[in-house]
Amino acid sequence: MIREEFLQLLKTHGIDTDLVCFDNLAGKDDVIYVRKNHCWWEVSYIERGKEYDCSGFPNESEALKYVIHKVLDTGKKKN
């Protein structure tokens, strides 16, 4: 999955794309942060300036698939 496909999938499910941050965290809070860290990709949740639940992946595609599944699964639990 490439980033553009990922963002379109969020939109298709009515999810605000601002939920996910890829680069600069300045001024952002309560977001899912996807970043490259040396040799792998990391996904974490940023809340009140602190990082939680960091998970590592071999590539961006796997990281984005993980985020989509987490976001869609969380949405199902709320309904």
Description:
The chain is of the alpha+beta class and 79 residues long. It has helices at 3-12, 60-78; strands at residues 20-21, 31-37, 40-47, 50-57. A 4-stranded mixed β-sheet has the order 1-2-3-4, covered by helices on one side. The longest helix has 19 residues, at 60-78. The chain starts with a helix and ends with a helix. The mean pLDDT is 90.
Tell me the major beta sheet: 4 strands, mixed
What count of helical segments does DSSP give? 2
**Which segments are poorly predicted (pLDDT under 50) over 5 or more consecutive residues?**
none
* Series of H and E elements: HEEEEH
User: Percentage of helical residues?
Assistant: 25-40%
What is the CA-CA span between the terminal residues? 27 Å
What structural class results from the helix and strand content? alpha+beta
In percent, how much strand structure appears in the residues?
A: 25-35%
Question: Roughly what is the average pLDDT, rounded to an integer?
Answer: 90
In short:
The chain has 79 residues and is α+β, with helices and mostly antiparallel strands.
Question: What topology emerges from the helices and strands here?
Answer:
Layout: H1 3-12, E1 20-21, E2 31-37, E3 40-47, E4 50-57, H2 60-78
Parallel strand pairs: 1-2
Antiparallel strand pairs: 2-3, 3-4
Helix pairs in contact: 1-2
Spell out the key features of this protein:
alpha+beta; four-stranded mixed β-sheet; 32% strand; 2 helices
